[in-house]
């Protein structure tokens, strides 16, 4: 532990008092800053205009195939994941979306211009898979890109096919679309993501719309007009520094997150093995306090008891899913810990993850911890 960190841990009682004081000061500063800010504009890139599909009143919770499986995905994996979410209690904890990421479709569209499931990996088709997921009380998500191809280049994107694809997804019973930003044609992001937004509204089915635009073009300033969440960062990686980089970038846009539309610093890496248990506790806690989507990225059919304990922590989930409109504003300076305009339980969450990193005393931890 670095000397400057050790100095913050003189005793449990003193450190808790310091933490409480810092949180109170940060909350007061955040409230004052909110009052001081001019109102967001009513049109253009303003966050006042919301994508009104009735979804995303709290940050989405679920599972996504990419972080662990990437393109090594098939219908058996998805079915077993749905089974596991129910069996081990994660569905009951709120993880309701089962989301396919890239590589689910055949490499080319049909002669009629339709996207179809890969016949080798999804022989039963997506509608049958959606029916199975729905039978478990869960919801199915799917993936495409606002370009000519998806990011893997193994399947077509939806650029120019937005209405057709949205209606097809709806006919299959899809509940969620993650829409990526690869193989774009130079058309502005607001135009390409806006086309799919309108197509989803026209599809006749409420479909959660997750913009995966990587934080380009200050997407939080306009994402709320088109979708229910928007990526504020590049892809996460399963390391301590990578995780903190993403939450740090996400923090710049805290004011734009509201019920109906959320900042997304990417999916959870908890359980994938690149970080220590204590670091995963921090990771999960920060995502919850920031009101980021809680989308599991590990193999839940082989989840350890430690990982399950993190992901199913009811107190931390309650912070994520609470009715409060404000999410956290942060700094990695010891004098400015994460502050969430919530209630006293935010202090307990902060204390929990700080305790994990100062095992014998409770203190603050800098971004470049040793």
Structure description:
- The structure is a single chain.
- The termini are close together.
- The chain has a single domain, classed as TIM Barrel, CATH 3.20.20.
- It contains 13 helices and eight strands.
- An eight-stranded parallel sheet has the order 7-6-5-4-3-2-1-8.
- It has 370 residues and is α/β, with parallel strands linked by helices.
- It is globular, with a radius of gyration of 21 Å.
- α10 runs parallel beside α11, α10 (277-289) packs parallel to α12 and α10 (277-289) packs antiparallel against α13.
- It catalyses: Hydrolysis of terminal, non-reducing alpha-D-galactose residues in alpha-D-galactosides, including galactose oligosaccharides, galactomannans and galactolipids.
Question: Topology, pairings included?
Answer:
Elements: H1 3-6, H2 12-36, E1 61-64, H3 66-69, H4 75-87, H5 90-93, E2 97-99, H6 125-135, E3 139-145, H7 162-172, E4 176-180, H8 189-202, E5 208-211, E6 229-231, H9 240-251, E7 262-264, H10 277-289, E8 294-296, H11 305-311, H12 314-321, H13 345-357
Parallel strand pairs: 1-2, 1-8, 2-3, 3-4, 4-5, 5-6, 6-7
Helix pairs in contact: 7-8, 9-10, 10-11, 10-12, 10-13
Distinctive features:
eight-stranded parallel sheet; globular; hydrolase; disordered N terminus; 370 residues; TIM Barrel; Aldolase_TIM; Alpha-galactosidase; EC 3.2.1.22
Task: Describe what is shown at a glance.
The chain has 370 residues and is α/β, with parallel strands linked by helices. The protein is built from 13 helices and 8 strands. Helices cover 38% and strands 9% of the residues.
């Amino acid at each position: 532990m670095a000397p400057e960190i050790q100095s913050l841990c003189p005793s449990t009682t003193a450190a808790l008092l310091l933490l409480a004081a810092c949180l109170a000061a940060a909350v007061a500063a955040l409230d004052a800053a909110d009052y001081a800010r001019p109102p967001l504009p009513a049109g253009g890139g303003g966050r006042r205009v919301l994508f009104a599909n009735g979804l995303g009143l709290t940050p989405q919770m679920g599972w996504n195939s990419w972080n662990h499986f990437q393109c090594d995905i098939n219908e058996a994996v998805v079915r077993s994941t749905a089974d596991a979410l129910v069996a081990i209690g994660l569905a009951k904890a709120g993880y309701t979306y089962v989301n396919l990421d890239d590589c689910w479709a055949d490499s080319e569209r049909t002669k009629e211009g339709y996207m179809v499931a890969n016949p080798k990996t999804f022989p039963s088709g997506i509608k049958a898979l959606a029916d199975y997921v729905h039978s478990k009380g869960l919801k199915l998500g799917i993936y495409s890109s606002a370009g000519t191809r998806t990011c893997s280049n193994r399947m077509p994107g939806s650029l120019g096919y937005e209405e057709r694809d949205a209606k097809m997804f709806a006919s299959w019973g899809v509940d969620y679309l993650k829409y990526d930003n690869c193989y774009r044609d130079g058309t502005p992001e607001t135009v390409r993501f806006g086309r799919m937004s309108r197509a989803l509204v026209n599809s006749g089915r409420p479909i959660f719309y997750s913009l995966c635009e990587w934080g380009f073009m200050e997407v939080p300033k306009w994402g709320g007009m088109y979708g229910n969440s928007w990526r504020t960062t590049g892809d996460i990686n399963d390391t301590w520094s990578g995780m903190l980089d993403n939450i740090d970038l996400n923090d710049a846009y805290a004011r734009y997150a509201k019920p109906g539309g959320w900042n997304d610093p990417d999916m959870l890496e908890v359980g994938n093995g690149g970080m220590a248990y204590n670091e995963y506790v921090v990771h999960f806690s920060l995502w919850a306090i920031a009101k980021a989507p809680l989308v599991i990225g590990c193999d839940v059919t082989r989840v350890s008891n430690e990982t399950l304990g993190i992901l199913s922590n009811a107190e931390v989930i309650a912070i994520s899913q609470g009715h409060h409109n404000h999410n956290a504003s942060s700094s990695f300076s010891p004098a400015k810990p994460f502050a969430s305009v919530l209630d006293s339980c935010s202090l307990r969450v902060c204390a929990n993850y700080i305790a994990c990193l100062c095992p014998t005393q409770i203190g603050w931890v800098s971004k470049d911890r040793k």
